[in-house]
Specification:
Oligomer: heterodimer
Distance between the termini of chain B: 64 Å
Structural class of chain A: alpha/beta
Helix content of chain B: over 70%
CATH class of chain A: Alpha Beta
Shape of chain B: globular
Number of domains of chain B: 2
Strand content of chain A: 25-35%
Strand order of the largest sheet of chain A: 6-7-8-3-9-10
Strand content of chain B: under 5%
Number of strands of chain B: 0
Distance between the termini of chain A: 35 Å
Order of helices and strands of chain A: EEEHEEHEHHHEHEEEH
Number of domains of chain A: 1
Number of helices of chain A: 7
CATH architecture of chain A: 3-Layer(aba) Sandwich
Number of strands of chain A: 10
CATH topology of chain A: Rossmann fold
Chain lengths: ~230, ~550
């Protein structure tokens, strides 16, 4: 896929809840193979933007496209993988069955890929266990495996490091880097200043308005003191 | 190391085989069946059957088996379709509303995130759950309709079988119409506002046809015609059956267009709502239903702030009015409509239809529940009131004042409309005599529900015994609306006085006094509830530890 191709394009995209502007009209383009970090305080509109790109929230105005296809189309669903901030998993499927199910829904199940993901995320011993009985961190690792087990060229991730231990965090960063190396576009929303430098581009939202778009390293000045300390 | 799979081609519109979805669903269902607790299922079937049997026997007793004379039978057959048309129009309008909120299918959240976001045909994967829903609801409605037919037959001559059959057909048709309307609204092929407008116009038409002679019956009367078919056949009514089937098919074909955002919200809330219903948790049901309807408080208040001096002297009233002032328009309309329903039901009681007293009481109880939102908020957030210097019983009583004002205003408006439709001096006298007891019992009845959810300052030792728990649960559910119904008892006395052609006010006010006393006693219970429980705990020798003082 050419790096000139636009993977994610957003035009005048906005979202209102009642009389509250969750996201003011926004224009944004993400070329294929670019990694973008979305930064902003709570309620700044990061999750709303990702939700609309993922097709789970409907825009009030404007359009969003994945590789030129509307976010709701089958083509866009094939291109896009979405890792929400809270793991959404079946109560009655094991980790293995989750990966088989989702990868089959997206074409075919490659057991070697699934086994590798499970090993990298430290889930080998729990491969046949039900995630409904897992801790928050293990559920997050399962959700990460589910997001990466199927083909994608655009990866949308919301707060992926919440609840992860050091090993899980490191595995997640590796998977993100590998995806970009393989040509995927990655958009990650996070509060974690320590990972920002891992991305190429930084986008800052404030009260639903885009206030900065530049190299990832330049977004530090927009982080609060508390965010920097926590990093 | 295997690479992360990337679909880097742009010709990505490859649809995963439907057979994958079917095979995986079959495997999940097998596992579910394997893990099912059959003993529990059998127990649920047993308790449901027992409940249904009790309901049938109760309804059968209520209807009675005295045969109607030919004139009465003709009147019943003539009027029943018009009232079934009202019922049908209302439930279809509610179906449209459900569809506009992401219904009627409630999927598992993981199905929404993994299945509906996968590159598969949404219509294809949703048609099966839709088919299950149609079978379940239409089948269930056919059974209920058949029972309704057999109840009608109790009062009429002739064999029962045709009535059971026609009742079943009418029930199934109505259920299909409701489901079809919900599916069409959910599929978003027709603008939701247009559908809603049409649905409520049909409700208005059906009500007008039922109340005013000379207005032709609405199309929903066809369902009623199907029910009374054994007595009076109307071939045109048969068209309702293909119309209902067509609506369901149209909705099912377009179900792939459902809103994922609404499906996510509905999926998350419906499970909680069902759980709250099984727990008889009225407050949770109210809150979840509001979330499902996206009912948020307004940023700006409808009501100006109280003057500073008054707010300083009555901070709880100021807080309550601030809360009520932020009601969304939808809640304002709902409360006014409930008030009007109560007022017109009371008018029906006055005209001789005594059972409408239950409708009137339930409607005022719902108004009371909405009006008591500020008190419910205090109970939802117990750390705030318990950090205040006032005793919480005293706070609870203070919280009754604002809602009483609100319910009084709603009652006055609705009562004025109901009496104003056909004004008479008697009507205004009755309104003046019954308004206060109705308002007080609506507020205090709702207060029992709201305050009943609050843990007491003393353990419920005496009341937690198994033999007490059942009746207590029944009281917790039935007593609050019953209190609101009791508020309309003075209306019955007024009606009786009018029939005897004696002045209304004297006997009506005489009966209003004990009703008002009941409301005041409930307010006293709210004030001294903790003390009562503490006294019970002490008398049973239990420790007074636990709970907040």
């Amino acid at each position: 896929m050419s790096s000139d191709e636009i993977a994610v394009s957003v035009e005048e995209l906005s979202k209102r809840y009642g009389d509250v502007d969750a996201l003011a009209p926004l224009d944004l383009e993400v070329p294929a193979g670019e990694s973008v970090v979305l930064v902003g305080h709570n309620g700044s509109g990061k999750s709303t933007l990702l939700g609309m790109l993922a097709g789970v929230l409907e825009p009030t105005e404007g359009t969003a496209a994945i590789h030129g296809c509307t976010v709701d189309s089958i083509a866009a669903r094939r291109h896009r993988s979405w890792l929400p901030d809270t793991p959404v998993l079946y109560d009655d499927l094991s980790v293995r069955e989750h990966l088989e199910y989702v990868s089959r829904l997206h074409g075919d199940c490659d057991e070697a890929v699934n086994d590798d993901l499970v090993e990298r995320l430290g889930l080998v011993d729990r491969y046949d266990d039900l995630p409904s009985q897992f801790s928050r961190g293990l559920r997050q690792k399962t959700a990460i495996a589910v997001a990466f087990c199927r083909p994608f060229s655009v990866l949308l991730v919301d707060e992926p490091f919440v609840g992860l231990d050091a090993a899980g965090r490191s595995a997640m960063l590796e998977l993100l880097a590998e995806s970009v190396d393989n040509g995927a576009s990655v958009v990650v929303a996070t509060h974690d200043p320590a990972v920002i430098e891992r991305f190429e581009r930084g986008v800052v939202l404030e009260n639903g308005v885009l206030v900065h778009d530049g190299p990832a390293g330049s977004v530090h000045e927009y982080l609060t003191v508390d965010d920097r300390r926590s990093g | 190391m295997p690479e992360i799979p990337l679909s880097v081609t742009s010709d990505a519109a490859v649809v995963a085989p439907q057979s994958n979805v079917t095979a995986l669903r079959t495997a999940r269902r097998r596992r579910e069946l394997g893990g099912r607790d059959w003993g529990e299922l059998a127990y649920r079937v047993y308790t449901t059957s027992l409940g249904a049997l009790v309901a049938v026997v109760f309804l059968s007793g209520l209807v009675g088996d005295d045969r109607l004379d030919p004139e009465q039978a003709a009147s019943l057959v003539d009027r029943l379709p018009t009232w079934i048309a009202v019922l049908g129009a209302v439930v279809v309008a509610l179906g449209v509303r459900s569809g506009r909120r992401g219904g009627p299918v409630a999927l598992e959240l993981p199905d929404v995130f993994h299945l509906l976001l996968a590159p598969v045909s949404r219509g294809g994967v949703l048609r099966r759950p839709v088919a299950s829903l149609v079978i379940y609801r239409v089948g269930g409605a056919a059974i209920v309709g058949g029972l309704a037919g057999s109840l009608v037959d109790q009062r009429l001559d002739g064999p029962a079988a045709p009535w059971v059959f026609s009742g079943g057909v009418a029930g199934a048709t109505l259920a299909a119409l409701v489901l079809g309307a919900a599916l069409v609204a959910g599929s978003r092929r027709i603008p939701g506002l247009l559908l809603t407008a049409v649905a409520w116009l049909l409700v208005a038409w059906s009500v007008a046809a039922a109340l005013v002679d000379g207005i032709p019956t609405s199309p929903f009367a066809a369902v009623g015609d199907l029910l009374v078919w054994p007595e009076q056949s109307a071939p045109l009514a048969l068209l309702a059956i293909p119309a209902a089937v067509a609506l369901v098919v149209l909705g099912a074909l377009g179900i792939g267009g459902l809103s994922i955002e609404l499906a996510v919200r509905r999926t998350a809330l419906v499970g909680q709502l069902r759980f709250a219903v099984t727990q008889q948790d009225v407050r949770a049901v109210v809150l979840l239903r509001r979330q499902l309807a996206s009912e948020h408080h307004r940023r700006r208040s409808w009501i100006p702030r109280l003057p500073q001096g008054l707010a300083d002297r009555a901070p709880v009233l100021a807080r309550d009015l601030a809360s009520t002032g932020r009601w969304p328009l939808r809640r304002v309309v709902r409360v006014l409509v409930a008030g009007l329903i109560a007022a017109f039901a009371a008018r029906g009681v006055w005209s001789g239809t005594t059972p409408l007293i239950v409708v009137a009481g339930l409607a005022t109880y719902l108004v009371g529940l909405d009006a008591l939102e500020p008190l419910a908020q205090e109970i939802d957030h117990p750390t705030l009131p318990e950090s205040m210097p006032e005793w919480r019983g005293k706070l609870a009583v203070q919280h009754l004042l604002g809602p009483t004002i609100i319910v009084f205003i709603v009652g006055l408006l609705a009562g004025t409309v109901a009496v104003g439709v056909g004004p008479s001096s008697e009507g205004w006298e009755v309104l003046a005599a019954v308004l206060v007891p109705v308002v007080l019992t609506a507020v205090t009845g709702a207060a029992i529900t709201v305050i009943g959810d609050q843990p007491t300052a003393a353990p419920d030792v005496g009341l937690a015994q198994p033999e007490v728990a059942g009746p207590r649960l029944l009281m917790r559910l039935a007593w609050p609306p019953l209190v609101a119904v009791i508020g309309f008892v003075p209306l019955l006395v007024a009606r009786s006085a009018a029939a005897d052609q004696v002045p209304l006010l004297g006997p009506t006010l005489a009966v209003s006094a004990p009703v008002v006393a009941l409301a005041l006693a409930i307010a006293g219970w709210a004030r001294f509830r903790d003390d009562i429980h503490r006294a019970i705990a002490e008398s049973t020798g239990a420790s007074s530890a636990g709970g907040a003082a």
